[in-house]
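Protocol step 4 of 5: obtain the predicted structure for the target chain.
Materials: sequence only (see below). No template structures provided, no constraints applied. The aim of this step is simply to have a reference model before the mutagenesis design in step 5. Sequence pasted as it appears in the construct record:
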Amino acid sequence: AAAASSSAAASASDVADKDVDMEACEEQLRAECWALGTIKWCGDKLAKTLHSTDWASAEVRSARLAELERRREEAALPGVSVVVVGNTGAGKSTLLNALLDETRVLPTNGMRACTAALIELRHEESEKAAPEYRGEVEFLSQAEWDKELTDLLDDLTPNDGPNEGRVAVSEVSADSPTYASWCRLYALYGDTFKNSRVQTGEKGPDGRNLYRYPTLESLSAKLKAARGRTHALGTVKAVTAPDAKAFRRQLEAFMDSTSDLVNCSGRCAPDRFGRPQCFCGNYWPIVKQVRAWSRKWRVLATGAVLVDAPGVHDDNSARDAVVKRKIKEADAVWIVSNIVRAVNDKTAKDLLGEHFRRQLLMDGQFGALAFVATQSDVLERSEACRSLKLPRDTTLRACAEARNEYTAGRLRKDFHAGLRELAEQAGEADAAALTARFELPVFAVSSVDYQKLAGLRPGDGPPRVWRSQEESGIPRLARHVRRQALVRRREISLRRCLGMRDFARSSLTLLECESRLPQATRDSLRAAYDQRAAEAQRRLKAACKAAEDAVRASFDTQVAPQLQQGAASAASEALSTAGAWGISVTQGGLHWATYKATTRRHGVFRLNMNEALTAPILKAVSVQWERAFLSGLQTTLDSLRDEVRAALDAFHASFTAALADASVPSAGLGAAPCDSLVSALAGVLSEVREAAQKQQRELSRGIEPIVQGRMLPGYDTATAEAGTGSHRRRVAILEQHVRAEAPKMFRAAADGIISKLEEMRDGLGKTLEREVLQRTLSGLRSAYAPAWDEVGESTLQARRKLAPPCREVLIAANDAVRRLEAAPGRLAGGG
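Step 4 output (structure tokens):
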């Protein structure tokens, strides 16, 4: 049944995606551009019109103008950030090149995973006179590199033996734990780093001078003085180019794109023995991130931003922090893996493993997760027939299709199994309810076959497997990108257009009201309003309180107890977790150099010790957290919206009855003056939800820093160990620190998060009171005050003068809404 449900969901998604062709995208984008431009004109026109004369009482004018300003100041349409993760060899760069309809605009290098830079790709919105391609290369700050340099040199400095305290500058083997650190220093400083051995003052048996490694302090000072490439620290380099080839060449100057660590300019003089040497160095070790734009990248024209992330736990701590921030802020996450390894690949399983799944669930990103299996054209027919149990005469293309289908089914099965595991670990009785809410889109693609079929690789021969661009899978993935952005843009654009239309309608209704009532009647209507407004206020206050209580209950009864339970589990498991790091490498422990590098970086290197220690806390709370602050909060806010609408409708019905009793026509108030209030409320509640989600994303990551803070003395003391036997002493010091701190630090971490969550919960209550209760009541009074306003002759003249331009604005706003509703009809439905 689960497989059938998954297949049905995938089929529905495919049908929806097929509707998102470029013609439909262009249609919606044109409609958005026209509609939002019209709405801007409407806002400007209304501001100029309503500021001009005294067309109502000061109270009404002030409230109306304040609401208009809020609508005019709404921010630009947000993009949709898609973070693409996957290790070296997964085919990410080739995939992104194909999605962008490029041959090779992004530099690629599968030689060293440690060198990857984060790349952010956007569609260029500038004028056509601007360059076709432009980019920005952001470098680390001086402080970030100084810290990184100290860590890298320390990695290469033995703690015992004849070279204790001296930096091993000689080239190390590729399988050494310190290879990545050596590569980065040599790539940046060239032979300034490598040729840093110093004379001992002694001579060998052959009479030649003897050399030894430099001290850490002396080499650090020497490298800090070498500014060949580090002059770029703290800067942002702008690059532009008229074509993709020239753009790639410029980017390659700042990124690791060749198999050579150092690319010499040829201007470096040989040493005194005539041997070649290079002091040029490369920029890539100090590049923090790269941003690129092009008008040619139409797949991103809907506002999508593709972020090519090298993966978390980068050896570069500053770059690692950028990657983690991008994932935290992402609207969607793609996991990319070679299809040959997609099912059994350790990377794929790790990325769908416990910690990653928990964080995505708590971030609210689980529903925006997708898996991309690359290189679907790479297979051997005989091997595929054997492994998939296909007839021996099955064609290569049929084998590839069967493998794609098998891979998608297996990945979805693993995805749901992971969700069930999360639910069971959190003590959920109904794991099926969680798995039923999420599906995993899987895309099996061949970037190379697509590029060949699109004419982007004319010299590389015919496609290996697929006969059309559609069969390659790239067009389907491109539609998925567009659709993710289009659906969100349409929702926000339409909400803004409806808001301006409703404001213009209620303003015109007021301006067309020419009733001149006796003072006694106006006093009676004001009293009737006050009486009914008091009842509406009571209902609105009760609705806001109910929403606050629902959030409080889910926090007090679900999240807080699970945090405390998880803290107890973390305390009991901490010593065994730490003990596993210090055992022999053959038994699964860390190499002594990796152990030291990790303590030197306060627990965060290729392994995140703090994350491992806090895992039991997140394991216990992840499902309840998602329910309380994501799906549960959405349900609570939906209920609040419905209750506010009901209260406003009841108020309107009651007040119009009072008007009838007083023989006052209600036409001046319109059929539904609350429409503008409800429209504004929808925007407010959306902002409340987004703000709450942003806060909880920060808080869900707040446990680890607290534990790291309590571990700092242990890390620093362990790192300081040197001399013979320093590794065993380092392990013993850290384990003793864990033993001493475990009973306290996890409880402190849980209590700290609980305290911050209480602040968030209380802040949410205040936000609801301010943004929902007070703003709705203020808007209510503004909408109904014209019923008892004194209307003199000058006011009537002003209204008659302002009504025609306001009517013109309403017509334009109505056109904007209609245009926006009609254009993306095929895109509105489906998931």
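Step 4 remarks: The CA atoms of residues 353 and 418 lie 7 Å apart. Residues 519-582 form the longest helix (64 residues).
Proceed to step 5.
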